[in-house]
Design goal:
Largest sheet: 7 strands, mixed
Structural class: alpha/beta
CATH architecture of the largest domain: 3-Layer(aba) Sandwich
Number of domains: 4
Number of helices: 14
Radius of gyration: 22 Å
Mean pLDDT: 94
Distance between the termini: 26 Å
CATH class of the largest domain: Alpha Beta
């Protein structure tokens, strides 16, 4: 299969008002995606949500025009978390869902994520079919004037998602007595996340809830948790939750200010589900970025850890194919398929809070499930087309892998969302992996 040029690991993404994130491209995506999902003679429907970036005001109407042009009715829900789109597509029996967001990226970027009628992100094959329609300007399905679609706003969309999220929390538990700080990253969950926690009984301190179009993810949220850590300690809170710009992932902070990443959260959830007999598939699904310590810990419980390419949709695809119900990424995408079809930071946080309530232990004890193997992550900017294909780069990566043997791992990949090469090494000797990582980074820089 030919490689996608527009779609990366999580939809289409780029700098707003520059190719590919232009109003013109958004219009074409609407027409092409709409055409791809026309099926039967019913009134077709697409749900469109966005985060709080200024450029959403440009991309949303352009997408709307594209869908209307092929005869699809558009349901606009405004700023809402990405997982809310997945939920609403199924709830409204829509043919397609769209999230306008660049997730954890700064406000200058934006993106388009597509969901099928089953609430799952599109496969590579379907994305490629849409991309082919765009590239070839094939819009045979443009509607006649009497068949054009309509657009309307769904005012109660937040309430629908709030009730959906609350219903994933055990009915016999309450968050009363727990003080929780939630950092909404000035993003898509700025209004729903605090309400969900409050309605379940928590004493909520909400921060980063004043979006202005420019401050999404700015020194806040899951990629910049220092503000959260300080506030949790200052408020004597039991736990802190940091979401990203579109609220499909989270990190957690314990009462001492210590961060628990997605690997620790998956370990906690898997341990709990395994103990109560609800874990399916004999383990969990993670990506190549997850720590070796997590894999070793699960093995002590007799559980496996399947690894996939980076990207929560690849995790979900493997979960669906092989019968797992827990999976995720180190970055904080946690998928619990008994509840959701995609990563959901709020629902994952509720499962962590439920575990906290049931055990009665402080978060500092609950969130230290395993000891991570020393892991080093580096990003290398590149300008060339394929530095990883250069023989010198391949050789030094192979040499590093041989030196670590079964005591560690080397994983080097091109980012699916940015012009970066991501270098990850882990092993028992922190100094050794530092030296090996530096050699790989230097080789990539020279080749680029």
């Amino acid at each position: 299969m030919a490689s996608n040029k527009l779609f990366g690991t999580d939809g289409i993404r780029g700098t707003a008002n520059a190719h590919p994130m232009t109003a013109e491209l958004a219009l074409k995506v609407g027409m092409a995606a709409g055409q791809q999902f026309l099926r039967g003679n019913h009134r077709h429907r697409v749900v469109i949500a966005k985060d709080t970036r200024l450029s959403g005001y440009m991309i949303e109407p352009a997408l709307t025009a594209g869908f209307v042009a092929v005869g699809m009715d558009v349901v606009l829900v405004g700023p809402m978390p990405t997982p809310a789109v997945a939920m609403l597509v199924k709830s409204l029996r829509a043919d397609l869902g769209v999230m306008i967001s660049a997730s954890h990226n700064p406000y200058q970027d934006n993106g388009i994520k597509l969901f099928g009628p089953d609430g799952y992100k599109l496969s590579d094959e379907v994305e490629l079919a849409i991309e082919t329609l765009i590239a070839e300007n094939r819009y045979e399905a443009l509607a006649t004037p009497d068949k054009l679609g309509r657009a309307k706003r769904l005012d109660d969309a937040p309430g629908r998602y709030i009730e959906f999220a609350k219903n994933t929390f055990p009915k016999n538990l309450t968050l009363e007595g727990l003080k929780v700080v939630v950092d909404c990253a000035h993003g898509a969950a700025y209004h729903v996340a605090p309400l969900i926690l409050r309605e379940l009984g928590a004493d909520v301190v909400a921060i980063s809830t004043s979006p202005n179009g420019f401050n999404i993810n700015e020194l806040c949220g899951s990629t910049s948790p220092k503000q959260l850590q300080a506030r949790v300690v200052a408020e004597s809170a039991h736990m802190g939750i940091a979401l990203d710009g579109d609220a499909d992932r989270l990190i957690v902070c314990d009462e001492t200010g210590h961060i628990a990443d997605g690997d620790q959260l998956m370990a906690m959830i898997a341990t709990h589900c395994h103990a109560e007999g609800s874990l399916k598939g004999g383990g969990i699904v993670a990506t190549h970025m997850s720590n070796l310590g997590l894999e070793r810990y699960l093995a002590t419980l007799g559980l496996c850890m399947a690894r996939t390419n980076v990207g929560d949709r690849y995790v979900v695809e493997h979960m669906r194919k092989h019968g797992f119900n827990v999976g995720g990424e180190q970055s904080g995408h946690i998928i619990m398929s008994d509840h959701t079809t995609t990563g959901d930071g709020i629902i994952a946080a509720l499962q962590v809070l439920a575990y906290l309530c049931e055990t009665g232990k402080p978060m500092s004890q609950c969130a230290k499930v395993f000891t991570p193997v020393p892991q080093l992550l580096r990003n290398v900017t590149f300008t060339g087309n394929a530095p990883l294909e250069q023989p010198a780069v391949k050789d030094i990566i192979a040499q590093a892998s041989d030196k670590l043997g079964d005591k560690g791992r080397v994983f080097v990949r091109k980012s699916g969302t940015e012009k970066l090469i991501r270098v990850m090494l882990e092993g028992e000797d922190a100094k050794q992996i530092e030296q090996l990582a530096q050699g790989i980074c230097d080789a990539i820089t020279k080749a680029a």
